[in-house]
Amino acid sequence: EPLRISNDMSYRKIHILSVIDDLHFGGDEYRLHAFAQSLDRHRFDHTVLTLMREDRAIGEKWGSLRDQYRQSGVRLLDIGQPAAGASERRGRPIASRLLSAWEKTRRLASLIRNEKVDVLDVHLSPANPVCAVAARNAGIPFAVTLYQVNTMQSSKLWLAGQFNLGNAALLITDS
């Protein structure tokens, strides 16, 4: 199958938008940082977007790589969602969680269009469902970096995972 690309491919740099839930200390966060530093800046524009807005108090408590990204010249954006703990998210009614996911998807699709993103580079499970829907709506390809599928323990998460993997143009995994 030919690779789907955006409609606007006049001579310009290819814009890659990497999306991750947040930038705490972790393997994929380090790998994304290395990727951002090694991209050919003559051929690619690269932006890293977090779904969670920056929270300095959480960053100080749990660690954050945001300053390292900024010091490396990586353009950082966030979609403005407040950081919420896993137990806090689980305690919310399903309608509230769906509304939050829909809002993230809507904001991301709008950002994709405004920024003229050509390829979405999706990192880790929390970002996957939102990004898959936004990329499909924007008509651009997306790549998924996933480290394990066994975290999709509920039938809803398994179904979301099948949608993500089935629609991705590329799957990246470390072994």
Structure at a glance:
With 175 residues, this protein is of the alpha/beta class. It has helices spanning 27-38, 56-62, 66-71, 86-91, 94-115, 128-138, 155-167, and strands spanning 14-20, 44-52, 75-81, 119-123, 142-145, 170-172.
Structure overview:
The chain is of the alpha/beta class and 175 residues long. It is 44% helix and 20% strand. The chain has helices at residues 27-38, 56-62, 66-71, 86-91, 94-115, 128-138, 155-167, and strands at 14-20, 44-52, 75-81, 119-123, 142-145, 170-172. Helix 6 links the parallel strand 4 (119-123) and strand 5. Helix 5 (94-115) crosses helix 6. The longest helix is centred in the middle third of the chain and has 22 residues, at 94-115. 27% of the residues are buried.
Average pLDDT confidence is 81
Q: N-to-C terminal Cα separation, in Å? A: 26 Å
Helix tally equals 7
Report the structural category.
alpha/beta
What is the chains' assembly state?
Answer: single chain
Question: How many runs of DSSP E, i.e. beta strands?
Answer: 6
Order of helices and strands: EHEHHEHHEHEHE
**Overall body shape:** globular
Q: Can you tag this structure with a few keywords?
A:
alpha/beta, 175 residues
Q: Which helices and strands occur, and which strands form pairs?
A:
Elements: E1 14-20, H1 27-38, E2 44-52, H2 56-62, H3 66-71, E3 75-81, H4 86-91, H5 94-115, E4 119-123, H6 128-138, E5 142-145, H7 155-167, E6 170-172
Parallel strand pairs: 1-2, 1-4, 2-3, 4-5, 5-6
